[in-house]
Amino acid sequence: MASEDTPAERREITVRRAPKYVPFLILGGIVGIIVAAVIAFALPGDPSYEPSSVFGFFMVLFGAGGVILGAIVALLLDRLSVRRAEHAVVEAVPETDSGNDPDDGGDSGPQAGRQS
Question: How many CA atoms lie within 13 A of 13 on its CB side?
């Protein structure tokens, strides 16, 4: 009965959408490799160098540059998400008994929705 008399705990939280960095890094690297392929194979070059060796050289340079640019874009988007963050107040919900939980029915789990 003491748990019913105590008020719920209230906390203020910050809600924001932050970007995931790894997809930006991968996308920047892929764009860098595509740019390297265009430069190596589509543009006329020195005939003393094979296009595949030029591609390998530019792939390292432009791939690393693309990863760096992808990281910069992710950092800029992260800073924008901090500015657009919203504040909210949340309350802790007291735990209920497992027998009274409406989601504790027999129709949940991997067998739910299957017909025999």
Answer: 9
Angle in degrees, CA 106, 109, 110, rounded to 5: 130
- Taking the model in full, what pTM does it have? 0.63
Could you tell me the two tokens for 26? Answer: 């991968």
Q: What is the pLDDT of residue 90?
A: 84
Give me 107's structure tokens: 């129709």
Question: Hunting for tokens 């950092």 — which residue is that?
Answer: 75
Domain count, the chain: 1
Half-sphere exposure of 77 (CA within 13 A, CB side): 13
Range of the domain at 64: 20-94
